[in-house]
Write a structure and sequence with these properties.
With 235 residues, the protein is of the alpha/beta class. 37% of the residues lie in helices and 20% in strands. Helix 5 links the parallel strand 5 and strand 6. Helix 4 crosses helix 5. The chain starts with a helix and ends with a helix.
């Protein structure tokens, strides 16, 4: 009986240790912080060696993720190798970034301050999956001009109520969806790109077999689309 209990305890300890290993939060190359409108924002920054003044791809994240997903799926390195500075952040209230006043206006102003910190709209492409649409879509509505260098929404929340001013300039946009994403519909995808300028400035790509977080379960396909889009924007 004692031996059985000892074996059970040993098995439990191994399981706990294994679970802990699955949540490794060891530092990643490029981890740093940025001060944005008085908030210390946790970030990962990687800069290409070939360009002393590269433009920036800013990676936001979804509800279940933090900045780490972009590094762990090797997407930051793929984009950096293509000649862009990559900045992945923990949004306020997530990961290692403290909370801030919450609401569409406050979220839009936070993102505006962050984009300005990174060089201004003309030098920043924003990648915005899922929940981060609460920041990016209000920003694009409240601050339509000057437009971002590019926008890569990935099934963002807030599409149904998303409308920009009639005179808002178009934004070069690559809208990405997974074919197995339950939030995807052709009508919603068309509405999103229409508000951002429509074809050929804004277009939709659907990754076959991918889920709501297409960049997570199909990172290579997503990276290929993103790098192709960035190359089309020019240096």
């Amino acid at each position: 009986m004692r031996r059985a209990i000892a074996l059970a305890l040993a098995t439990l300890l191994l399981a706990v240790a294994a679970a802990g290993c699955g949540k490794d939060e060891s530092p990643l190359p490029g981890e740093t912080s940025l001060t944005v409108d008085g908030t210390v924002v946790a970030a990962i920054v990687r800069t290409p060696t070939a360009d002393p003044d590269p433009r920036t791809v800013l990676f936001l994240h979804g509800q279940s993720y933090t900045k780490r997903i972009w590094a762990e799926r090797n997407i930051l390195d793929r984009v950096s190798q293509a000649g862009w500075r990559t900045v992945a952040i923990d949004l306020p209230g997530y990961g290692d970034t403290p909370e801030r006043p919450d609401g569409p206006g406050e979220q839009a102003e936070f993102l505006a301050a962050l984009v300005d910190e990174l060089g201004g709209p003309a030098r920043v492409v924003v990648v915005s999956p899922s929940r981060s649409g609460d920041w990016s879509l209000p920003y694009l509505t409240i601050h339509p001009d000057p437009p971002l260098a590019g926008f890569v929404p990935i099934a963002p929340v807030g599409i149904d109520g998303f409308t920009r001013p009639d005179d808002a300039p178009p934004v070069p946009t690559l809208s990405v969806w997974g074919s197995k994403d339950g939030t995807y519909s052709e009508e919603r995808a068309q509405h999103l790109v229409a508000e951002l300028g429509g074809e050929p400035t804004a277009r939709t790509e659907v990754i076959d077999g991918a889920s709501h977080a297409a960049y997570d379960d199909h990172p290579d396909e997503f990276s290929d689309l993103l790098v192709e889009f960035l190359k089309a924007l020019g240096s």
